[in-house]
Amino acid sequence: MAFDYEKYIRPGKLPHIWCPGCGHGIVMKGLIRAIDKCGLSKNRTAIISGIGCASRLPGYVDFNTVHTAHGRAAAFATGMKMADPGLTVLCVGGDGDGVAIGGNHFIHACRRNIDITYIIMNNHIYGMTGGQFSPCTPTDGFASTTPYGNPDPVFDIAKLAIGAGATFVARTTAYHANQIDKMIVEGIQHKGFSVIEILDCCPTSYGRRNKFRSVVEMMKQHKELAVPVTAAAKMTPEDLQGKIITGILHQEEKPEYCEQYARLIDKVQAQTAGKG
Amino acid sequence: MAKKTALIQGNEACAHAAIYAGCTFFAGYPITPSSEIAEVLSKELPKIGGKFIQMEDEIAAMAAIIGASLCGHKVMDASSGPGMSLKQELIGYACIAEIPCVIVNVMRGGPSTGMPTGPSQSDVMQARWGTHGDHATIAVAPASCQEIFSETVRAFNLAETYRMPVQILMDEIVAHMREKIVFPEPGELEILNRQLPAVSPADYKPFDTSFGDVPPLAAMGSNYRYHVTGLNKAPDGFPTTTAELVDAEERRQLRKVEANASAIEKNEEYLVDDAEIIILAFGITSRSARFAVDNLRKEGVRAGLFRPITLWPFPEKRVAGLAGQVKAIIVPEMNLGQLIHEVERVVKGSCKLAGLGRVDGEPITPYQIIDKVKEVL
Amino acid sequence: MGIPKIEIIEKYCKGCSICVEFCPTQVLQMDGFVARVVKPEACIKCMQCELRCPDFAIKVYPE
User: Fold this and answer.
1) Hey, is the C-beta of A210 within 8 angstroms of any chain B C-beta?
2) Quick check: A87 and B221 CB within 8 A?
3) Mean pLDDT score across all residues of chain A
4) What residues of C are in contact with residue A14 (Cβ under 8 Å)?
5) Nearest residue of A to residue B77 by CA position?
6) What residues in C contact A16, CB-CB < 8 Å?
7) Would you identify the CATH topology of the domain A16-275?
8) So what's the ipTM on this one?
9) pLDDT digits (tens, 9 = 90+) for B26-66
10) Which CATH class is domain B268-376?
């Protein structure tokens, strides 16, 4: 049976603003299926974004949605989750938003291990402003501000998240559409800060400048380069050069931030009562 | 029963007043000379089940309080100079998305790192115009520890009533000096809460003006689902570029303060009725000015003090009225001329106007003011 | 097992051709800037077109 996306889409909001072939729509559908699978209540779910193409996602979906300022999604979300720990809080956004201007908020949200699921759509470019390079644009890649090729090294978002203390980190691609919802479900169900990096396609601003004839070619590249994490474990670093390792890359149990703070309150209140 | 009293610092009074006002969420980032506010609230908020979080930077602290306010909490953040510069981005967000929050700015010298432990009053214009774009501003400037308590409570009331950020501007001296304060009993000071929606969730719009210029604000996570954005928005909360909608929303957001200015403004007047010269001063400078007024009166100079407690909206009608009855207005301030521009705009040349600025990290003394008065008269 | 119903919502389709290119049995074809169902009888109900359509423009009803 066709999946009923309309149940979660705000009336009259489609078609969305994304360009033909942009993978953000594929991710949005995966997110909706994941929320549906988890059986989340619309009233008790909040989706927070920053600024950029991917950050327009919350406007389409029928939850508590906050389109914040550039890079600030994780910090807004931290305030909301602390304020109402029972609320399911998800962040969505792009690579520039998440790990350039929002990098500081991103790593500290990882460090706190606050129970938020952060879905980062990495399309290697600032699409909305006209295709400038991001920290995730491949070295030597072309963007509107790297006319001679990108001299910058690249951030590995998943490694960054693991290093900063996120307790669930997964990666997939827009090509692997049926893995998107599976990874997001795992992320939502994991207690702690979950990062799901989805390698996405921007045919308009990235593909065009980097010799991809179409979005299909970009997706086929994702298909060819993807190596499931189990297969990757048996490969040498040389073999893995340039590959995209997909699946759950890291998962561990650590105290969750809101639960830690709740324990702090209990302790303080017990001490105060003892004094009274 | 005698009321509880204490000898406490201005910053401590501010923190205790926040709890009195119903604040249950504070986010901050360490910065001198505001640190004690965060320190007291980190200790006091958990006792009442409230939340304190130290964020990774000043922008994040603003983001966290806005998020918590959207979830129905009364929220506060405190900072100074460079921290306030960083916060301007999200003060603008709180303005356009109309989210109640209180931000304390314990002013230090600047620009940049400036003089972290020195007193200053140099953020008057930053408070008004620090964030980009047109927006309304409410900023209060208490001058004593007792008043820091009452004005902090009022700042929360104003933020909740008008659904917007409210700034408390303190200079380092009022923030760090210790004075006896009398804690008001519960219920003694009025506590106001934001207006909640009276319509059903299906009919709710977060910027619905059919209830007046301040739309009711539902808590996220309750039964009301809605969208918030920093883009210009329509009454339903979704972005719009429709010219009439953008224009109407921008004007309404200014109007909610302009049309209620008389209810928001608060001033203190001392010996102004027969005054030939008025000293217009706020914060710690107003206390030097009051001393100067008393001494000048002893010398036969009919001096008076006008002290704006609300810097923004500026009490323009009253100041214009006073300008018509005096020979001169003197504006001493710990900066090189900020509030005087507003006074000049309002006075429109109807009396002499002179400023007295000091930015060396020392307060303006009564004798500096007395000398200035004699020079002007 | 009947032929599935494949619905293309034309007002949402932006003509990216992802569905056409990744369909394993060439059920779909581009018609200018809109995808069309040309061989519904070849559909194996893998649902990949519905899953990958970024524009919410394809619905596959297996029965």
Assistant:
1) no
2) yes
3) 97
4) 12, 55-56
5) A79
6) 55-56
7) Rossmann fold (3.40.50)
8) 0.97
9) 999 999 999 999 999 999 999 999 999 999 999 999 999 99
10) alpha beta
